[in-house]
Design a protein that fits this description.
Length: about 300
C-alpha cells in the first residue's frame, strides 16, 4: 500500500508542478513528499523528476509512470463508482451550481449518462457565474459547484476535472479571408465583447493579460454581456471579437459561422473545477463527481 500512496504523491507533484503545493494538497510535509518521490526513483532505478530552480521537469521515465498512474487511478474510480452505485442506488436529489459554459455545453451529456447508470436520481442545475456559485455553496443553496474561474475562496475545496482553452473568435460573415492570426498589439486594438464582472472567464482573461504585463483596460471593450450564448449571437451579427471557451463554439465552427483567430505568443488555458465545502458531506454528489471524473479521466 505504501508504493500505491507514493504513486499518488508523485502524480500530485506532476499535476501541481510543485512539491510544496503537493504537500499542502495531501496534508503531509514537503520533506515527506520528497522522500516518497525519491523512494519511487530508487524502486524503479531511474530519475522521474528533475528540479531546475523552482521549475520541475518530468523525465521520459516520469512520463511513462504518469500515464500508468492515470490508468490505475481510472480503474480505481470505475471500481468505486460501480460499487457505490450498487450500495447507494436508493435515489435522491443532487443540487448543482454550474458556470454557464459548463451548464450549457459540457455537463448535460454526462448528467444524462449518469442518470442511466444510477436510477431515481434527480439533478437540479442552477446556472450562474463563478462568484455566485461560490456564494451558493457557502449559503447551502447547492451541494456541488462546477466553475470556470480559478480557485481562490477560503473554506472551499477545488478539484480540477477538465482542461479548457479560451480562443479569440469572430464572425466568418465579416472576417472571411482576413488575417487568421494577430500580434498582441493588433489584438488589443480589436473591439471586444466580454463577460460581466464576477465571471470566471473574465477573471481568467484578466490573469492572462497580467502575465504579459497588460491590464484589462488595455482591451478595446465594445460591450459587456452576461452569458456566452448572448455573446455568440452578437458576434455572429457584428464585426466584433470575443474570447470564448472552445467547448462553447464547436457547433458554430462546424456550421462555419465563427472562426478562430490565433494570437501570437498568447494562449489561455484553464482547468474547470468542481467546488465543494471544505470538510463537508455531499452525499450522492460524491457519486456524481466520481462519475464525471471517470468520464474525463481525472484523478480525485
Amino acid at each position: 500500500m505504501k508504493s500505491h500512496f507514493r504513486l499518488h504523491v508523485f502524480y500530485e507533484v506532476v499535476q501541481r508542478q510543485s512539491f510544496t503545493k503537493a504537500a499542502e494538497a495531501l496534508q503531509i510535509s514537503q520533506p515527506a513528499v520528497t522522500k516518497h518521490v525519491r523512494a519511487l526513483e530508487e524502486e524503479y532505478k531511474v530519475p522521474l523528476l528533475e528540479r531546475k530552480g523552482v521549475i520541475i521537469h518530468i523525465t521520459p521515465a516520469g512520463e511513462v509512470l504518469k500515464s500508468y498512474c492515470e490508468k490505475i487511478f481510472g480503474l480505481e474510480r470505475q471500481l468505486k463508482f460501480e460499487i457505490d452505485a450498487i450500495r447507494e442506488n436508493q435515489g435522491g436529489t443532487i443540487r448543482i451550481g454550474a458556470s454557464t459554459t459548463i451548464a450549457h455545453y459540457i455537463i448535460p451529456k454526462v448528467i444524462a449518462s449518469f442518470q442511466q447508470k444510477v436510477k431515481d436520481v434527480n439533478i437540479e442545475i442552477k446556472s450562474g457565474n463563478t462568484e455566485a456559485i461560490e456564494n451558493w455553496l457557502i449559503d447551502d443553496v447547492i451541494d456541488l459547484g462546477m466553475i470556470e474561474g480559478s480557485p481562490h475562496r477560503g473554506g472551499l475545496k477545488y478539484i480540477p476535472f477538465l482542461k479548457d482553452e479560451l480562443v479569440v473568435v469572430c464572425s466568418t460573415k465579416f472576417h472571411r479571408g482576413h488575417k487568421s492570426s494577430l500580434t498582441i498589439k493588433e489584438f488589443l486594438k480589436k473591439p471586444f465583447v466580454i463577460r460581466e464582472q464576477g465571471s470566471g472567464t473574465r477573471k481568467i482573461i484578466k490573469d492572462a493579460l497580467e502575465s504579459k504585463n497588460l491590464h484589462e483596460d488595455d482591451l478595446t471593450i465594445a460591450m459587456q454581456l452576461d452569458s456566452t450564448e448572448s455573446i455568440k449571437r452578437y458576434i455572429e451579427a457584428s464585426p466584433n471579437y470575443a474570447l470564448l471557451s472552445i467547448y462553447s463554439i464547436l457547433e458554430e465552427l462546424n456550421r462555419d459561422q465563427l472562426q478562430i483567430i490565433d494570437i501570437e505568443d498568447f494562449e489561455i488555458d484553464r482547468d474547470l473545477h468542481f467546488v465543494i465545502k471544505e470538510g463537508g458531506s455531499i452525499g450522492l454528489g460524491t457519486t456524481f463527481m466520481d462519475y464525471a471524473l471517470l468520464h474525463y479521466n481525472k484523478k480525485l
